[in-house]
Specification:
Blueprint: H1 3-14, H2 22-39, H3 50-62, E1 73-77, H4 85-91, E2 96-101, H5 104-117, E3 122-126, H6 132-138, E4 142-148, H7 153-160, E5 164-174, H8 179-188, E6 193-202, E7 209-217
Helix pairs in contact: 1-3, 2-5
Length: 218
């Protein structure tokens, strides 16, 4: 990783209360290089520059860190090339992290990174969150479900529900949101979820806007 991009990662992480040690910086460096290498052969992400990956993948993933408990079990639904699950696991090894994606090549990449970085307590599953076998095996196991713009909000909440423990939190990371639409959705889901918080932010060193929505399972 170029020195200037390493500085962006270190300083940007501080904006979310994350202070990267040398081990974490090395892990992000390896992750970045593997992502760029694999991306030459298979389409893992449309972002192909070091700076873009640091800003729009790594820092974006870390933006939810302040809203997670210290030792949760987390399910990252539609995790793609491992975002946000793997960056969160790098900065907080105590997380029990499960990633699920329907695209085999992306899961293969996730497993490669997990092995390469030695991320214990991390599992990558190939499949869809609505698959009966996956729901049966993983139902009711998680404190947190995460989604990074993988589907519309209603679909994410429906998919999350069987995986969450009572009182667990579904966290949706969205680019843009309609307050009226969110309000109507919160009313429609009032028997299953309580909208706990809506947070607006701009990612460090960019103009990229992010909305984070926290729904608590009733």
């Amino acid at each position: 990783m170029e020195a200037k991009n390493k500085d962006l990662l270190i300083e940007g992480a501080k904006a979310f209360g994350v202070y990267l040690d040398e081990e974490a910086i090395k892990a992000f460096d390896i992750y970045l290089k593997e992502l760029l290498k694999w991306n030459q052969k298979i389409n893992l992400t449309a972002i192909r520059s070091e700076k873009g990956i640091v800003l729009k993948h790594f820092l974006d993933s870390l933006s939810v860190k302040p809203y997670l408990p210290k030792r949760p079990s987390v399910l990252d639904i539609g995790s793609g090339a491992g975002f946000p699950g793997i960056p969160l696991k790098i900065v907080q090894p105590a997380f029990q992290m499960t990633l699920i994606d329907s695209v085999r090549k992306k899961v293969d990449f996730q497993r490669h990174v997990i092995r390469t970085l030695g991320l214990r307590g991390t599992e990558a599953i190939h499949g869809r969150a609505q698959d009966r076998e996956i729901v049966q095996n993983l139902g009711g196991r998680f404190d947190i479900t995460l989604s990074r713009a993988f589907s519309d909000l209603r679909t994410f909440l429906v998919l999350s529900f069987p995986f969450l423990k009572g009182g667990g939190t579904a966290i949706a990371m969205k680019c843009e949101t309609d307050d009226k639409e969110i309000g109507l959705l919160a009313e429609a889901e009032a028997t299953r979820y309580r909208l706990r918080n809506t947070l607006q932010l701009v990612l460090p060193f960019s103009h990229f806007k992010r909305t984070i929505l926290l729904f608590e399972k009733i």
